[in-house]
Specification:
- With about 300 residues, the protein is of the alpha/beta class.
- It has one domain (about 5-295): Aldolase class I (TIM Barrel).
- It is about 30% helix and about 20% strand.
- The protein has helices at about 75-85, 105-110, 135, 140-150, 170-180, 215-230, 245-250, 260-265, 270-285, and strands at about 5-10, 10-15, 15-20, 40-45, 60, 65, 95-100, 120, 155-160, 180-185, 190, 195, 200, 205-210, 235, 255-260.
- The strands form 4 sheets. The chain has an 8-stranded parallel β-barrel, surrounded by 7 helices. Strands 5-6-14-11 form a 4-stranded antiparallel beta sheet, with no helix packed on it.
- Helix 4 runs parallel beside helix 5, helix 5 (about 170-180) packs across helix 6 (about 215-230) and helix 7 (about 245-250) crosses helix 9 (about 270-285).
- The longest helix is centred in the C-terminal third of the chain and has 16 residues, at about 270-285.
- The chain is globular.
- The chain binds succinic acid.
Length: about 300
């Protein structure tokens, strides 16, 4: 019997495989057995409903995708009423990804979150006018946002960082000091697609967030840098498509991992990865994940 459980943010997850925010919603329960997952992160919620950016919002690129969704969502109040009851039935740990355009908005939304396992604070979205990546590039603002969230909730707080920070380690340290109990490294990389018919950027907001295999070595290095320097667990995210990628993230220092755009091409990837890590551990004679990972539990 292989024990795949991991501890972070004061929680025990049955395994390290977590679905990232924004790539799934409740209809996926028809395809994926959510009870088998370590956890899920529900897509970015704000205090008030948001329309998001005008189309086009997403396009394929070689080895990945680039999106400019703009954090479209129903807002926390409608979410609490209409979505939360169903999420509570999923049989896995549920985290909410939250977003605000000001520190005050982060405080307010945090105080309205209940009945979930934890909060993932998004200071890393490249596709919005205010907030997002602008908060995550600066250690001082990252500190203020994290502190505001921690002061308004008793739930574990994870902060999702942007690879666009000039020194991601300094930002991670600021979040740790402000009370974060884990770091997600990393959100999408800012990128650009030009429509050659018009000669203009494809997305109205110009910048998009690049994800998928194209960013895996880049994201992996960010995980290595952060996990080598901060004392809280790091959840690795960026271009993971199979169990070999997950192992690389473990060896780089991740405690757990998030699956993002692979869900678009292979929705069964999470279950395949859990099965293949189990097989790998058996073949190598490991009885638990701690023997494989170079990481911090918490
Ligand atoms: C978006 O909604 O634009 C993507 C979310 C993110 O990058 O955090």
């Amino acid at each position: 019997m292989i024990d795949l459980s991991v501890n972070f943010a004061g929680l025990k997850l049955k395994n390290p495989v977590i679905l990232a925010s924004g790539v799934w919603d409740l209809p996926y329960t028809k395809i994926i057995d959510f009870k088998k997952l370590g956890g899920v992160i529900y897509k970015g919620l704000s205090l008030m409903p948001r329309e998001g950016n005008p189309p086009p919002r997403i396009t394929e690129i070689p080895c990945g995708v680039i999106n400019s969704i703009g954090l479209a969502n129903k807002g926390i109040k409608v979410f609490n009423r209409e979505v939360l009851p169903e999420l509570k039935e999923l049989g896995t740990e549920v985290f909410l990804n939250i977003f605000g355009e000001s520190i005050e908005e982060f405080s307010k939304i945090s105080s309205l979150i209940r009945d979930v396992s934890g909060i993932e604070v998004n200071i890393s979205c490249p596709n919005v006018e205010k907030g997002g990546v602008y908060f995550g590039r600066d250690p001082e603002t990252a500190y203020q946002v994290t502190k505001a969230v921690c002061e308004n909730t008793d739930l574990p707080v994870i902060v999702k960082l942007t690879p666009a920070a000039s020194d991601i380690v300094v930002v991670a340290e600021a979040c740790q000091e402000a009370g974060a109990c884990a770091i997600t490294a990393v959100n999408t990389f800012p990128g650009l697609v030009i429509d050659i018919d018009s000669g203009k950027p494809l997305f109205e907001r110009v910048v998009g967030g690049v994800s998928g295999p194209a960013i895996k070595p880049l994201a992996l290095y960010k995980v290595y840098e952060v996990s080598s320097n901060v004392g809280i667990p790091v959840i690795g995210s960026g271009g993971i498509g199979n169990y070999e990628d997950v192992l690389e993230y473990f060896f780089a220092g991740a405690t757990a991992i998030q699956l993002g755009s692979v869900i678009f091409t292979n929705p069964l990837a999470p279950i395949e990865i859990i099965d293949n890590i189990t097989k790998y551990a058996k073949e190598k004679g490991y009885s638990n994940l701690k023997e494989i990972r170079r990481c911090v539990d918490g």
